[in-house]
Every structure is written in C-alpha cells, then in structure tokens.
Amino acid sequence: MNDITTFLNDIVPPLKTEVESNFAGDSIIRLNVKFNILCDPFKNLNTEHKRFKAFHSLGTLIKPLGSIVGYRPNDSLQRGDVIIKSIPVKIYSVQLEKLFRQFFEVPNVYNTFLKYSETIIEANDNLIHNFIQSQMWRDKILLSDKILIPFFLYFDDFETNNSLGSHAGIQKLGAIYVSLPGCPPEFASKLENIFMVLLFNTTDKKLVGNRELFKHIILEINDLESRGIQICVDNQNIQIYLSLALILGDNLGLHSILGFSESFNANYPCRFCKCSKAECNSLTLQDTSKLRTVENYSIDVNIKNLSTTGVVESCIWNDVTSFHVVHNYSVDLMHDLLEGVCNYDLTGILRLFIIDFKYFSLETLNQRIQYFGYGPTDIRNRPQAISENNLKNNKPLMLKTTVSEMWCLTRYLGLLIGDMVPRNSEIWQLYIVLNKI
C-alpha cells in the first residue's frame, strides 16, 4: 500500500498539471476530486484498525471472543489493610463453525479436499500415510451417510518472555490449534491452514481446571458433528459434518489436558497402557493385556488414586460424542524419536564405532557428513560436524542437531559409514532396526 501510494504520488501531480491546462470551470473541480482519490487510494485502509474493520464488515475476519471462566485472587495492601479482591480469568476463542465455513468456502478448497480424500481412501497400495486411511476412520465413516470430515486439535504451551529469564512462566500461554488431516500434503503444514482456536494463561489452567477451560469448545465440537454446517460451493449449498479425530501434542501437553500424570517418573507414567515404571523399563514387546480400555479406564477414574492408576481426573474430552481418551493413539515423532530415541541410539553407536572398535576416525565421519551428496531436498538438513568433546563426554545425548538434521542423519548414516563397519556387527544390526523404524 505504501509503495503504490508513493508511486502514484510521483506520477499523478505532473499528469494533473498537464490535464488542468486543458480544462476550466466545473470540469477542473471534478477532475481535482478524481485526482485526490487517485493520489490516496487507500484512505479507508491506511491503518490496521481500518483494515480490520473493513475485513470484519466483509465477513472475512473472525474476531476472537473473550469468555470469563473463573476468578483469580488479586489481594492488595492499602494503608496497612489487606484488601481482598479478585479479577476475572478470561480465555479467548474463535468459533469453529465460522472458521470452518470460511475455510471451506474459499474457492477450490472443498473440491480439493474431497478429491484428495477419495484418492487416498481408494488407494490399494497397503501403505497408510494419512489418518483418513486408518481403520479407525474407515469404521467411523461406514456408520455414517453424511459428508464427514475429520479434524485434529493440537495443544501446547509457549513462553512469551525469555524462557531463561527471571520472569519465565508468568506470561506463559496455552494454545489449541486445529488442522485437517484431509488436507493434501503440499498444503498440510502451511501455517495458513493451521488455525489457533483457543488461548489462555497457563497459570489459569491450574487455577480453574481443564473442565472450565475446554467445556465451551467441546460443546462446539459436538454441534459440528451432530448438526454440521452449511457451506456454499460453486453456488450450491452443501451440508458437511466435522468430527474430532485426534488430540495431538507432546507427552507433557497431552497428559496435562487429558488428565494423566504429568510426571514421567510416576508409578504409572503411560497414557496408552497400565504398565508400571519398572515394567516400562524392561518390556520389549507389547503386553496387550495391559492396554488401557474404556472399561478399565472408568474403574481407574473411580478409584481416584494417581499412584495406583496414573489417572489424575476424568478426561473432559470424553464428553465429545465420538471421542474417548483411550483411543487417542497420538504420539509425537519429533520429541519421542528424533530428539529422543534416535539421538540416544546414534550417540551410543558412533561412540562404540569410533572410540571402542576404532572402525573409523571422527575426522573421517565429519568429512563424509560434509561432502556426502544428500540431493536437493536434504542438503539443507545436512548435520553439523560432531566435536571430539561431545564424543568423549560420556553423556547419553551427544549429538547437537536440529530435528530435521537428526532425521537426515538417521536415514543416511548407513550410506555414510556402512562400508567401514563389519556386516556381522550386532551394533550395526541395531542401526538397521532403527532405520527401518
């Protein structure tokens, strides 16, 4: 807007002078009005407030709504007396119905979703690369004759202050976002297709609890699945229904909003099974008898004993008609594998290969990391060189990499060093298993 205004102000005055010399009287007045508009075409949009107002009047801006969910003590000392006061606890949310209607009415969005969903559901390659191909979702749509679209909720806290500073945590915010698994992969991870729908202060969550924070959005979710929304696509009215498929997040975030223990050193630290901490440290195969079910979860809730069940409270999200927490098989690839298992395993593997078995030197490894042909897609995720200090410090995690660099290193390590390692090495077999996973 600024650039166009500057451009017009450069070319319009000379033009105006040229034109004025050929007109007189009322014509000049009318021309001056036109030229003034041309010199300032964004007069009604030149501030953020005016732009928001214009978008809101067009129906393209959905303003967040504030809701009071409780009260926080805010006592003060005045002239030696303690004045007992409280201030309202507010959350801010965007109405899901308006959000989804706006999104699916964007030209070509609905048709693209429909076409992609039909394509991957009908695929017979025995590979599942999207949630809507899963048996869980197939079973759900078989029971419905509606146009049913799944969506995910994602929860996490984020720090607005310096996370290492003295005020860390005071202004920490919790946010819930919504995304659509039916979105084609080339659009799925774009921020313009991931929407924030709820925002609150993290300290307020501890004060008012999950039920007060999330009860409004749960009512909306149930409404979307039972009543649906009507959208206008290519001048046709279409009734669509949206269903909560999964709640996503890292382990701490999910445990906090789903009502499980937030300490992973607890006696029962898992949201998927009822294995004890000791069993979790030794099991290498899944014990199906220990999996959480609707029945044993209900018993655990009624016991009301965190130390023997791992359940803090009944999950508020079970109030969603077609959702139950024990079926929420959602895990975090980034934290669990790339920042956890992969780093831990590769640290041990490389330390053994380089220091103990001396199959190759650290210098050789770093040269191969530096000059390997990763291809145009992965070259920007090339791992950093590994320092000797990191290799010898005996810490379980030595590789200082980003998530994308660890993803790259885990996949390519076999090609980087495979020619220098004996094929019968048990450690090498461990890497092969990790790579397959």
Protein described:
The protein is α+β, with helices and mostly antiparallel strands and 437 residues long. 46% of the residues lie in helices and 15% in strands. It is built from 18 helices and nine strands. It has helices at residues 2-20, 26-39, 48-58, 96-104, 109-122, 135-142, 185-188, 202-226, 251-258, 277-280, 294-303, 306-309, 333-356, 362-371, 375-378, 388-392, 403-417, 426-436, and strands spanning 65-73, 76-78, 81-83, 86-93, 148-158, 173-179, 195-201, 229-233, 236-248. The strands form two sheets. Strands 1-4-7-6-5-9-8 form a seven-stranded mixed sheet. A two-stranded antiparallel sheet has the order 2-3. Helix 1 runs antiparallel to helix 2, helix 13 (333-356) runs parallel beside helix 17 and helix 13 packs antiparallel against helix 18 (426-436). The protein starts with a helix and ends with a helix.
Spatial arrangement of strands, main beta sheet:
1-4-7-6-5-9-8
What structural category arises from helix and sheet content?
alpha+beta
The number of helical elements comes to 18
> What overall geometry do the principal axes of the alpha carbons give?
globular
Rg computed from alpha carbons, rounded to a whole number of angstroms: 29 Å
Instruction: Please provide the count of β strands.
Output: 9
Mean pLDDT: 90
Q: What fraction, in percent, of the residue positions are helical?
A: 40-55%
Major pleated sheet: 7 strands, mixed
Q: Measure the end-to-end span.
A: 51 Å
**Uncertain spans, ≥5 residues at pLDDT below 50?**
none
Strand content: 15-25%
